[in-house]
Amino acid sequence: MSTQTNKIGGNAVWVITHTADLDGVASAAIAIEGEGEEAIERILLADYGEEYADAAGRAVEPAPGDTVIIADIACDRKNVSRWASIASGWKARGARVLWLDHHAWDDDCVRAVGDAVDLLTHDTEGRCAAEVVLEHMGRAGDPVASRLAELAHDSDFNLRKEPLADMLSRLIAYYNYIGGGARENGDDLKLRLINSLSLGILWTVEMDIQAKEYEKILRQDYDRLLRSKVREVNGYRVVVGLRGAYSGTDASNILYNQFKYDIAFILSKEGWLSIRSERDDVNTKAIGEAFGGGGHLRHAAGGSVRDLFPNPTEEQLDAIADYIVRKLDTIDFVLPATPTPSSSS
After folding, report:
1. How many CB atoms lie within 10 A of CB 135?
2. Which pLDDT score, from 0 to 100, does residue 180 have?
3. Domain 7-203 belongs in CATH node 3.40.50
4. Can you list the residues of the chain whose pLDDT is less than 70?
5. How many CB atoms lie within 10 A of CB 297?
6. Angle between the 22-32 and 129-136 helix axes, to the nearest 10 degrees?
7. Options 3.10.310.30, 3.40.50.10490, 3.40.50.2000, 3.10.310.10; which CATH number does 222-328 get?
8. Residue 169 burial by CB count (10 A; 0-12/13-18/19+): exposed, middle or buried?
9. How far apart are CA 183 and CA 175, in angstroms?
10. Separation CA 304–CA 156 (nearest Å)
């Protein structure tokens, strides 16, 4: 177990991290590694949207000398000014504010946030957010933190080389699916997971039981996922489906194997979109921004159709697919072809 705490110079660390995947969970665990349950009270699980910025403004109350880390939260143009205002307030109170992201940011986002924080990272060239947190928390030599960053990297870039990364990602997807249910709250389970990971406890019997419960649910959702709708936009094969209890990544892998799509739109039960593409010429960031979100320049982004379809159903799927392809037809999402290095003779 690491002897490091989540205090810098004797002051507390507050963490606002992406709630939906292993990268955000691992980022928080790295930030609080070794501190124990007390540090959990200073973690806010967040996502894109004004409500999360407002929640951060209410819940995060740093003292002078504290550090506030915003991890794995990409720029959402609609709400970036609100985030910047809140971060400026923390900085004015004497806190150090680090926005440690790895997604692609445009110049407008950088300008909006730049003066509000002490450090902003983005476009980190093949590194996930957990790896960025590892570096800036000064824990690159710590075996637990380094292992968490490795697992997050494997999950976030969908490498599928680490079985444990896949297991943890599926566990988090299960917690996302539970949400605020009456039996156990998904966010509470995520916080318990963050605490376990920070202590170097990477898998337990309880997690194994939860994973088996999740597998039972997935078997019910698999057939519905295969009933996804297929469309075409300017020569690109587009698939739109309901992911049910699957994570966006797992659903996208199943759909790719079944449909060999160019672009996939995978909906959660609340109307959130996971946007995926295996092609290097598809600007997923531009597509995500058009649907009120953002993400990586290539391969993965997020967005929403909640305004029109707050609780999407299979009966609505044709209408949702038609709406998505109409909107997609108005977006310039084609990137220049990636140059192929010439071979020497």
Report:
1. 16
2. 59
3. yes
4. 1-10, 35-36, 180-184, 337-345
5. 16
6. 10
7. 3.10.310.30
8. buried
9. 12
10. 20
Residues contacting 179, CB < 8 A, separation 6+: 185, 186
Angle 163-178/205-226 helices, nearest 10 degrees?
Answer: 80
In angstroms, rounded to a whole number, what is the distance separating the alpha carbons of residues 56 and 52? 6
Residue 340 confidence (pLDDT)? 44
Triad 220, 320, 47: Cα angle to 5°: 75
Residue 298 near residue 280, CB atoms below 8 Å: yes
How many beta carbons lie within 10 A of that of residue 313, not counting itself? 11
DSSP output for 229-274: EEEEETTEEEEEEE-TTS-HHHHHHHHHHHH--SEEEEE-TTSEEE
The pLDDT assigned to 184 comes to 64
Beta strands (DSSP E) in the chain are 7-8, 11-18, 43-46, 67-71, 96-100, 119-121, 229-233, 236-242, 263-267, 272-276, 294-295, 300-304
Cβ 103 vs Cβ 122: under 8 Å: yes
Q: Are 246 and 173 in contact (CB under 8 A)?
A: yes
User: Tokens for 211?
Assistant: 């994973």
Question: Any residues with CB less than 8 A from the CB of 340 and at least 6 apart, and which?
Answer: none
The pLDDT, as a whole number, for residue 48 is 73
Contact 28, 194 (CB under 8 A): yes
- How is the chain split into domains, by residue range? 7-203, 222-328
- What global pTM score does this model have? 0.78
